[in-house]
Amino acid sequence: MKLSYYPGCxxxxxxxxxxxxxxxxxxxxxxxxxxxxxxxxxxxxYSLSADDLMRQVAPIRNLIRAKEGGNSQLMTGCSMCFNTLxxxxxxxxxxxEDLARMNAFMYxxxxxxxxxxxxxHVLEVVRDQIGFDAIRERVVxxxxxxxxxxxxxxxxxxPNEAAIDDTENPSVLEDLITALGGxxxxxxxxxxxxxxxQTVDKPEIVADKTYGILGAAMAQxxxxxAVSCPLCAFNLDHRQETTLKLHxxxxxxxxxxxxxxxAIALGGSESVxxxxxxxxxxxxxxAGKGLL
Length: 292
Description:
Blueprint: E1 2-6, H1 16-28, E2 32-35, H2 57-68, E3 73-76, H3 79-94, H4 96-105, E4 118-121, H5 122-130, H6 132-138, E5 147-150, H7 172-179, E6 183-185, H8 203-219, E7 224-227, H9 230-238, H10 240-246, E8 255-257, H11 258-265, H12 270-273, H13 283-288
Parallel strand pairs: 1-2, 1-3, 3-4, 5-6, 5-7, 7-8
């Protein structure tokens, strides 16, 4: 299987652990992820301003790049990129007048966009095109004894037109962890917001969010929290130091990308995991479970 792949900006720098482990895992599962040529930033977040058509050009241009390559599907791993691309695509597909204006803005493009590219998250490909049974058959190092709290945050399940699963009680990550031989831990905060961009000028708000989210995971006996968003990863991982200063009863916890757990279970080496990019090191936990 060959799929057009959109990496987004962060996976090329601060979240190389996300990209490297994703590409390794998909390759092991028989998916050739072909990076989109001439891709550009998606815009990071979906614009909510009243007159925002110009702000839809960035994500739609990426869909044109996929179309130029003869692809009807575009896969991405970053939850924020996915949400932005998916919602821009939904708008293009449901509003002919807006689509015509967006194409007019992009008059120098060789083709018009016609809403003919499907935006997929890696987890959708895993669930709907590969299947958990096939993944289970490829596992060489089961995540035995690892209790994982699956954190979706906002971008995978909100709003409805962008959701990859049930908005209140999603299960795709739990199903994946089970297929990898781990033990998913259900916890109350799995779709809570991490604080998002408040981390820039109000880190104490994010620290309070981290305290609640990781605290809820710990209360259910989780060893680690698995995420799919680089911003969630930063807030829940790198803001633990601030959280500890504000909450003396807080205990640190490693935060990992779901793709890193996939890579481990599918036989990936430590070089693929890029554990050096974590603030709270996952290596001691993983080594203690015999996974490194």
